[in-house]
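Running log. JK asked me to keep both predictions on one page so they can be read side by side. First protein, sequence followed by its tokens:
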Amino acid sequence: MKFYQIIILVLNLSISSIVVAYDHKYYGFLAEKYEQQQRYDEALMLTRRAIFKAQETYNPAWLIRWQWQLGRIFKAQNKIVPATAAYQLALDGLNSFCKSKSNIYQKIRPIYFQLADLLLQQNLISAARDVIEQLKAADLKSYFGDCVLLKTKSVEKIADKHTAVIYPIVLEKRLELIISLPRQDLKRITVNVGHQQIYNTVTAFNKAIQKGRSDLEDASYLESAQRLYNWLIRPISLNNIKTLVFVPEGILGTLSMAALHDGKQFLIEKYALAITPSLNLTIAKINKNKKKILVAAITKATQGYAKLHYAKSEIKAISKLGETSKLLDEKFTAANFQSYLNKEYYNIVHISSHAEFAPNAKASFIITQNGKINLTDLDKMIKFQQTIDLLTLSACNTAKGDQEWATLGLSGIAIKAGAISSLATLWKAHDLTTYHMIKIFYQNYFKHQSKAQALQTAQKTIIDTIYHHPIYWASLVLIGNWL
């Protein structure tokens, strides 16, 4: 540091001490300015001082921020090993938070991606995957506003010999695909496409699919469907693979993987598909006993929501498959629903009612006859009984706002409720085709197909009808355990 710079620094510190003597924020923010000016040596010295002061006064949230800053400075100096260590300290502190404020979490969420980036630069593939797994758990904490505590098992314990698990990690300037194949080490494939291009393409894809509501023959989605296929699927060798399990993040969580297209056919025509928000939070148990079903449904227009025209037919078809308890219309209240769950153990809980997913769990809900069940209440109700095999929500909508959080609601509720799997829709479903898909899905699942295979059979059946456009079948997704 030059002499005049030292004088200015001393003067700045003296003036600052009038307001806050020895405050970690002063050192940290001044270091941040130096970081922006690429004066890394000064930034490093002041950041270390900020860390010391934050430790001294025990300010964990600020400590995370300054450790993150330390990691960025090391990274800018191309000191990858100390940068990784600093990021890891920041992440350890971040993961220790429960009921963390979402506004704070959103600001420091990039720590996960930047650390994963550093690890991938060192080809530490498994460590990078573990960081993204931690991100998944943190996202759920933020969405539900509490800790997500579950017994977890490694994906290798539940993968079968015909299943590939794909982690797409979207970084600022590239896409990293981490692939878990049967009896092989993790593989890593780098695709030369950045975050903004992927975000724009997924957004265009989702928007184009919606045109099918008014024009069955509209094919404007195909350009983006093929582009996404080329990025996410084509680079991977998938010999002898029958099922693909995606662990999507961010904007990719809004994407119907089933509707990706290779130029000749949809992805669902080639592979059975499932998504999971986190492999470490995917319940490894497989429940072969599929006898008892609880169906809760609203078949009439209520509370400003339209009538579900095929709800009765859906219920009738499901009831033929096993011992079924029904809560229909006036009987479907929150009190009755909880009472039934308390008295009996059900392998399958099927809810046919309108559902809205908002940017947080407390504002997300399922419509009952006399009110609503929000997601935080739903998971408490279901937890009264043992782990259920399948939770189905067959008529979901997405509330206005950030659609990425809506996807967290869909997947998170299954995790929070302890359901092995859930079946739900990414957008407002088409009544007729959804009824047929639900019917075919259950019939084939009860014939001992895996859940992913049963959904594939159902969706392929609809593709072969006049309702071949993805708007009619691609919204239905399997979340969690795919077996």
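And the second, directly underneath as requested:
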Amino acid sequence: MRIYLAAPLFSNAEREYNLRVSRMLSELGHSVFLPQRECTGTKQEIFRCCLSGIDEAELVVAVLDGAACDDGTAFEVGYAYAKGKRILGLRTDFRNVGEHGGAVNLMLSEACEGIARDEDSLAAMIGGLEDAEEAQS
């Protein structure tokens, strides 16, 4: 499966975590588009590269950690949702935030088919999506 990994990438810790998740997904046999690795150039070139990556993806995995989701990740989720892409969230942050104690903003949680709490749960969710697709074929 072609997966676009939407995640914050502004600190060393974020970039290292993104590489870890990307590696795990690749080891499961998926092709992973990771913007921090794939997109370079001017701001406009990076923007177009990211949109192209989402356009070509079969699934978007969005890292939703933090008190509020990274704004770039939120945009990528919205864009993917508007394009009819399947979206899974990954939230390892144990803090509950939001009006009703939910972990993620309503607009993000509703755009996602599911939100995994760790990498193993994410792998299981992706496996479930693949199983469902195979059953439909």
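Observation for JK regarding the second prediction: The longest helix spans residues 119-136.
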